[in-house]
Structure of Ribosomal protein L7/L12 C-terminal domain-containing protein:
Amino acid sequence: MDPKDQVQRRVWRTNRINALRAELQTLLDEEVQDLRGAEPLDHAALRAECARLKKQGGHGVIQAIKFYRSKTGLSLKEAKDAVDLIPV
């Protein structure tokens, strides 16, 4: 296989994996909310706000994690893991 084709295939797989991670995170967030009996979240808006905060770097990432926790009620580790999966 041509090296250029290998790179393109690897990029495609990485993009697909990231899309699946985002979808899985949405499903997990919905499940957590159902279990806690909270109001449903606007996941697109939640991810968009976290991405905006993450773009600020350093302190913005911390703010994104705090924001995510405040909206989902997840633990610090769960919120950090979720925010880490949100693409910037």
Summary: The chain has a mean pLDDT of 87. Residues 66 and 79 are 8 Å apart (CA to CA). Helices lie at 3-36, 43-55, 58-72, 76-85.
